[in-house]
Amino acid sequence: MKRLKTLLLACLVLSVALCNAAEKKQNTPAVVKNSIHKIARADIQTPDDAILELKNGNKRFLQNKPENTNYKEQIEQTKGGQKPLAAVLTCMDSRVPPEIIFDQGIGNVFSIRVAGNIEDEDILGSMEYATEHAGAKVIVVLGHTHCGAVTGAVQNVKLGNLTHLLEHIRISLANNVAGDKVVDETAKNNVKQTIKELYEKSEILHEMVEQGKLKIVGALYDIETGKVAFME
Known about the structure:
By secondary structure, this protein is α/β, with parallel strands linked by helices. The protein is built from nine helices and five strands. A five-stranded mixed beta sheet has the order 2-1-3-4-5, sandwiched between helices. It starts with a helix and ends with a strand.
């Protein structure tokens, strides 16, 4: 009789434990794809996957929770080749480092930088290599607030070779905006103009977009907050 009571008690304890485990599993939230955790490179199959990882990376950056800072390991992983998920065309401004603000470290993004994030034939060629040859799924044209190059274009600055560069930006002047907002609105217009020119001047990029292999998106980085706002 004593053994029977012990056995029944053990069964009762086991039953309670199983019920608690089942309840805990039921109440555990599923891991959704739009969490801020890093998406493994192997899981990035589409342009939308790449864009999502860049958005997640910026969230990690804002929360000061980077996951791509083991540079020694990244050097080892990429010494035999590269397969970045994105190409980022951005301004040369020292406050806008793509690998950091998107938490991507070494080997995850092609970083193409020039004052005012404009395009020319050399940049187009670089992007065609990054996408058609190396497999980047998305091109991000990244402007930023308080841009010095955009300010120079707004103020019609003349300075050596910079004069020619600023002419690329002047066609995007936000003439319908006054005051302090004109620079940032012009920066947004300039991003859109650069994207338009990428489509028009590169048959390779245009075809890849049409085939769904590539997306070209604009974004604006706020140097006061660190936040990247995608213009989709």
